[in-house]
Amino acid sequence: MKGSHVFLCLLSLSCWLNLIPTAGNKIFHLGPCRVSMSTAEIRSGFTAIKANIQARDLIRTLSILSHPHSLHKVKSSDRCCITHHLFNFYVDKVFKHCKTEDSYVNRKISSIANSFLSMRRKLGQCHEQNKCMCGQESAEKFKQILANYEGLNVTSAAMKSLGELDILLDWMEKAH
To answer: Going from the N-terminus, what domains does the chain have, and what CATH number goes with each?
Structure first.
């Protein structure tokens, strides 16, 4: 009997600790989904390589993420969906093609990619529970982002998308 009380206390404590975000994490409310993420950690890694990555971007007349209305004025009900699409986009397309000759930069990219992979899993769980519904507007906005990306060669598009990571982080924090 005494052992079961200890077990229940430990189980309760474990559940309670899982609800508390770890240091530096923020809880993002993406429509009906709530996910914990450390944008400070991602931003720190990105800031360390931003100048290097953006110097590789030779096409200054096009933007992947800030094309008019790409991320602006997204309805709160569509935030989960478009964020889910964007994390899939970065993991499946962008990070796979962002390799440099600089091992320090590659390690930072890998660290950011791992954070995105973790977020993608969290958003995927919400999506699987049908909480992350995709409306027509979010589908159109994401199609525009893909069209901007696919209009360039793979390496240029990946580097440009990585160089615009601060746009995504700013948008997420502003919506937070």
So the answer is: 24-175 (1.20.1250.10)
Kindly report whether the global pTM for this prediction surpasses the value 0.90. no
- Residue 45's Cβ-count burial label (10 Å; 0-12, 13-18, 19+) is buried
Decide if 163 contacts 60 (C-beta within 8 A): no
The token pair that represents 118 in the structure block: 């973790």
Q: For residue 93, give the nearest of 139, 33, 152, 170 by alpha carbon.
A: 152
> How far, in Å, CA of 97 to CA of 123, rounded?
23
The model's pLDDT over 98-120, given as tens digits with 9 standing for 90+, comes to 999 999 999 999 999 999 999 99
pLDDT 10s digits, 1-25:
555 554 434 334 344 334 444 446 8
In angstroms, the Cα distances linking 104 to 39, 46, 49, 167 are 20, 12, 9, 23
Residues 6+ positions from 157 with CB-CB distance below 8 Å? 64, 93, 94, 97, 149, 150, 151
Question: How many Å apart are CA 18 and CA 40, to the nearest integer?
Answer: 20
Helices and strands counted in the chain (H then E): 7, 2
> Other CB atoms closer than 10 Å to residue 16's CB: what's the count?
9
One-letter identity of residue 76: S
